[in-house]
Amino acid sequence: MDELVRGLISNNYLITPPAYFLLSEHYTRDFTLPELIKFAKAKGTFIIDEIVAEEFLESKGIITKLKHLEKFMTGKKTEEKSIEEPAEGQTLEISEAKEVVESPTSVSEAIEELEEPQKSSETQKVVMAEISGEPSVEEIEESEEEAEEEGEGLEESFEVNGEENGEVKRKVIFEEYGVPIVGEEELPEEKKKTYSVYADFKVSPKEGFEFIAKKIEPDFKVKFDVRNVKLKPPKAKNGTTKEGEIVVKVYENYFKSRLKKMRRILRENPEVSGVIDIGKLSYVNPEGDVTIIGLVNSKRETRNGYMFEVEDLTGIIKVFIGRNKEDYKKAFEIMPDSVVAFKGRYSKRGIFFAENIYLPDVPLYKREKPPLEEKVYAVLISDIHVGSNKFCEKAFMKFLEWLNGNVNTKAEEEIVSRIKYLIIAGDVVDGIGIYPGQYNELSIPDIFDQYEALANLLSNVPEHITMFIGPGNHDAARTALPQPEFYREYAKPLYELKNAVIISNPAVIDLHGREFLIVHGRGIEDVVSYVPNMSHHQPVKPMVQLLKLRHLAPTFGGKVPIAPDPEDLLVIESVPDLVQMGHVHVLDYQIYRGVFLINSATWQAQTEFQKMVNIVPTPARVPIIDVETARLRMIVDFSKWCDV
């Protein structure tokens, strides 16, 4: 079945063959399925026929003339009828009048037919007029004479299609000399929206305010984006290969990729030496210490310590570390499916007794980077949640005014004048159907309108500020990590913003030689679930754990869905200067081994769900980052306007 037909049927819409032939050649190239469904919804029909298809294509500018109007004017006559000429302003339903002109083959024929003397008597006309409640013949003649004197043509109309068959009504207009002209079709008006998409909200840069950032040349590069990685999924071996076998093969490649990348990171640590493959342990001297690197399949706490099952490409082994060992506490930080190194000795009983544990972690020392000629600042925000009835719209509008130079202090004036970048780390809209009962908490219940509303707001960001916008779990994007981008058919208004750069989740942006790792932050959920003493109230602690494990979502099958890509793109291969996350709606930050980690809070007040799980958000607080040092410069608080 064709993709267009299948997509419509899955959304409870039907399409006729003529409409299919009209639309199929333009599908995906000139329009998308959601756009067609939105148009049909506005028309109030679930059947897409030829007329609806043509009107849709005309609305998109794909065709300029409706073909069904040509058919009406030039189609073959099927049956001749005789009927009274309608009086001025009289409208006859097709069920009563059938047709005044039965599809004349040309305008001239239509004129001839209309000029033929009608056989009905004057008496019949009077009776018909009285029955219909219309003016009498004498009144009609008088009105015609008056119209001729005033130089106006007699204009009459009748409806071709009634509402009873589900079609839209069309009118034939009779201008002077009785020439029938098919009038422009009146499209049904969309229901007036009871909510705003901020189309009228406009902010201009403050007059006289000096934006120094305008003179600073932009210096950015998206160093890593999921869309730029070419993935080669495995092919079926033969025609009998089942789909499940291919999926298993993909995940096998995924974890092989993770192990390979992590081994390279771990071997950069000078303490990790003498690495032996698990499959070769039975050949080594049992008295000497060796190191193994593997994927942790499972871990369990025993009376005397922790027991792990560890796997590499050559085999599987049980690893035990006792409570009396110096690195025993590190066992708590190891999450399922993470890759770590164990140093110790191998027992002929088939157990590896570990003395030390090495996490991939980041180096203790970082190389300093050269200073910048000019101070440049970046604003880090996330979780705007436009469309939620808890969205702090007034606070966000005040923030946009602030970016345009409406500041309160000299310190803020210096900051705003040098803001060059705005980074938004996901959940830019609240989405639709993300959690049960969400519809009752939406102020904008249409996903298209949510993105339009966001774009209207962000269009007020000064043009010299480059925006980087990535998706989150509430956005119209792939649910599983990594998320390549927003679905264009839904988030089209964002792509049309002149100063916006759409990025993936995760992404690495180089700003003036400093690497910013931008992640929405769903991996925090798994850390809170598996590592003791972690909570959503202090999100930077779970962020540190992810940095230690050098992975953004280590555990497979936990709360975070992971896509079956043949390569693991969530490994933190390069140590960044700054890590930005969101997702948990709490502002928090910390420096760990030279890396600045920050959770950039939210623009949404506390929801009912957050009340149930005891999450207290810190909305409308804006961190400003000094790009040169990749450190926090100041936090601007707009929360007093968040009164929802």
Q: Uncertain regions: pLDDT < 50 for 5+ in a row?
A: 75-137, 147-170, 174-179
Give the strand line-up of the largest sheet: 6-16-17-18-20-19
SS summary, helix count: 17
Query: How much beta, percentage-wise?
Result: 15-25%
Tally of separate domains: 4
* CA-atom Rg in angstroms: 35 Å
The top level CATH class name of the largest domain: Alpha Beta
The major sheet is characterized as: 6 strands, mixed
Q: Based on helices, strands and strand pairing, what is the structural class?
A: alpha/beta
Query: Could you say what the CATH topology of the largest domain is called?
Result: Purple Acid Phosphatase, chain A, domain 2
Q: Can you give the helix content as a percent range?
A: 25-40%
Shape: globular
Question: From the 3D coordinates, which CATH architecture of the largest domain would you assign?
Answer: 4-Layer Sandwich
What is the CA–CA distance across the termini? 48 Å
DSSP strand count: 22
In round numbers, the mean pLDDT is 83
